Description:
Elements: H1 2-19, H2 24-38, H3 43-78, H4 80-92, H5 97-110, H6 114-131, H7 136-153, H8 158-167, H9 171-195, H10 224-247, H11 254-261, H12 263-277, H13 286-299, H14 301-319, H15 322-331, H16 337-352, H17 355-366, H18 376-386, H19 396-404, H20 409-435
Protein name: Gnt-I system high-affinity gluconate transporter
InterPro entries: Glcn_transporter (IPR003474)
Family: Belongs to the GntP permease family.
Amino acid sequence: MPIVYICIGVALLLLLITVFRLNAFISLVIVALLVGIMEGMHPVEALESVKNGIGSTLGDLALVLGFGTMLGKLMADSGGAQRIADTLIAKFGQNKVQMALVITAFIVGIAMFYETGFIVIIPLVFTVAIGANLPVLYIGMPVAAALITVHGFVPPHPGPTAIAVIFDANIGIMLLLGLIIAIPSIFIGGVLYTRMFKMENLQSDIPKKLFNSKRLEDDEMPGFGISIFTALIPVILMFIYAFMEIFYPESGLLEYVGFIGDPSIALLIAVILGVFTFGLNNGRSIEDVMNTIAESIASIAMILLIIGGGGAFKQILIDSEVDQYIAGFMEGSGFSPIILAWLIAAVLRVSLGSATVAGLTAAGIAAPLAGAGVSPELMALAAGAGSITFSHVNDAGFWIYKEYFNLSIGKTIKTWSVSVTIISVVGLLCILLLDLFM
Length: 438
């Protein structure tokens, strides 16, 4: 019955949003409360779970989304994003600019959670698409695919690293294998899947408040070096922290590096730097720069609420112990250890929405099986692959993708949910192939 209640909740959510045109945030809160009550929670408990879900989701993401949007708006309005985009287009050409952004996203994503990497790189996606006269999703789909693939497969990203610890896997070996698996997964689920669509079906209206489509003259923009440096400051700081955490875990500097390497602080530092590099040094007044920042926050108010609503839905499913029900049911099956780890993570991902919860829960259940002649690194990768499968309305990442690309739910499922499922399945097949040789 818990699975039936989840299905009813998802169907009701789609009905409220697509048929009755109810606001997505309101719909998410209503459905979350109803699913919680159907799952046996007292109405007061369901309400507390909804509050906790919104609070915990926005507690993690509000600063990241806020500072990331400020940085993106500063980049866009100053011409910094246009400078980077024009340079990439001139360097790689229109035919290869998609791959250039995918590689950029792959590198950026290694140090960041999916949501953070998405916010950091989205201004470049918009600007490159406009500059190269390409549909936004032609660039955006494979870029998002690269970010979510790293989220599932590649240490030192926090998710795969945590799963590796549970399986007692070697981080270095898992990194090497994760890279081997990630490349075909991104190419098939991101690049090739995007190219299956007709160009006109990849068109999307960029939210006007998130992006300045005005093209600036060469002398009006900051230089390429300072633009790319400012944009990559968060990545650099988070990479430094990840490096220290893996190779120098006992260092006395770790807590200080951890502070500046936290996504929120790293982005704050980038925003402060951007006030100068994208603002004051570019001939703008401090009042003008602050107006840009204020406009950026106003543009994401509803996006924040909708993401919080997705977190409420996820929290209801966790607090009603749906994950334990699914885990107990799957544990008694007769699947191979690798397929079992992937399947538990995949079912939890679809049911709960959280890739991190799905991966870590699957790892906890399947970890004892890793010693039975199966590589712990491949088991960890299987749990990571399963944790990024079919993303839908109970996942905050789904709503971030939908709102920033200004898509309908149906088009988000076609372009995003199917893409991540292909990546997950390709990842599993690569893991099973590697298992034949290990």
